[in-house]
Amino acid sequence: MSFLIKALNVTGLIFVGLIMLSESVLVSSAQAQQANPATQKRKAPQVKQKAASTVQSGIKFKDSFIDKSSKSMSLNPELFKRVDGQYSREEGDNFDYRIQRGCMQRSFNESNLPANIGVVDRSFNEFFKTQSKGFFDRMRGNCIPYALALGARDRFESLSIMNGPLQDSKTEVWTFTPSVAGGFLIQQDSLKEESKRFTEIQIPLNDVLYDPKKVGDQLPVELVWELNSVIKQIYPEENNALENTRSIVRLIVDFGDKERWAQIWAAEIIDPSSQEIFSSAFWVARSDIPGGFYTASGESIERTFWTNPLSYRRISRGVGSVRASSKKVAAPKNGTAPVVALQQRYRAHMGIDYSAPIGTPIFSVATGKVVHLGYSGAFGNLIILEHPGNYRTYYAHLSNYNPELAIGNEVRRGLEIGYVGSTGRSTGPHLHFELRKDGVYVDPYSPKTQLDLWNMRDSDSGLLTREILLLGTPIKN
Prior knowledge:
Blueprint: E1 8-16, H1 37-40, E2 47-48, E3 61-65, E4 86-87, E5 98-105, H2 113-116, H3 122-131, H4 133-137, E6 143-150, E7 156-162, E8 172-178, E9 184-191, E10 198-204, H5 205-210, H6 212-216, H7 221-234, E11 248-254, E12 263-270, E13 277-284, E14 292-295, H8 302-306, E15 314-317, E16 320-333, E17 336-349, E18 352-355, E19 361-363, E20 368-375, E21 381-387, E22 391-398, E23 400-401, E24 410-411, E25 416-419, E26 430-437, E27 440-442, H9 458-471
């Protein structure tokens, strides 16, 4: 089995609008010491005293197998030959966004690649021809790997291409996206052999669904929680008997270090005999807001993460008005005894109440910084986490806190931060949870709530096609 080295370093960014701007070069080096995954995963602390970078461009992984008798799932360059291969939303959806992936056979008109794979944007096709000449001069192999995203009415969203199926220190990945200012952007990534951050792991689907202890032998505890959540969301309902097969979950994992969070970058449910991919999800790291998981059809699955801070029995109360008090008042009536009326007073209830027994663990729904830890009036024992993009999450009425926490700590998503209680103004054991944007409460369960956290932004499409191209299981013969 050949192990592929995928260390991404941004080497150039070209902006082309109505006026061609000069090329700017961004150079970053990504090197990590090689380590055994069993020990490597212990290095990523769940609580940090200082900020850690969440955007990583370095990619490399090696293989680690549960069932070594299974058919090899390494990224074999020979697998990059089938031209067809398309991810799309389920039947009945509007197909506003779809991704197709393949490896186009080389020919004399390689510069026509976008048009040949379905891009109808004439201005982009012309731009591609003028900008890609140098790229094709460095081609290797007999096909060109690509991942293309198209939107409504075949609108061009992003295109990632690689200079051949072989991935080593000479490999280049170019990603094209439209610019909001007009024209197009190119991000040029080169793969560096020395970076050893990423590991490929295969775990039986049954273990992921039903045996977290076995998964815990492979991953840090916070990634076990995250993986279980991802798989439950992408598990194909039409194949509800998959757990009775030898299906596996193929993972690409960065085990992190003292300065970088451990992170799952790709998760695929695969039939090891046919290598059929039933479903998949890819992590997209963003600098201005928290990163998120997207399916291979561009659908975000982040809303579920942001609305599940614990294992709860039921939602006991949502957003709305609740009765605060009532009292009897006398209303005079002409010539008769006064009429006694019941006057109700109401107050707004902003937040979601999750009913659960005292002591039930509560998890951070996203990576963030502790900005409040202590008693706060009606909230009782309260934790507030601050997240990129001016988001904050509130966890109230706690019985206790994780003793490792302190104000200023950074915590990773999935960390056990506290425990259900009934402190403050509370009628029984529950967690009061709030999500706020710019200080204003938003209802995460409302279908009208469409936050940038949960939607494919224009700037995210290129990141997604690049990750699918680099980290997805190669298309088979």
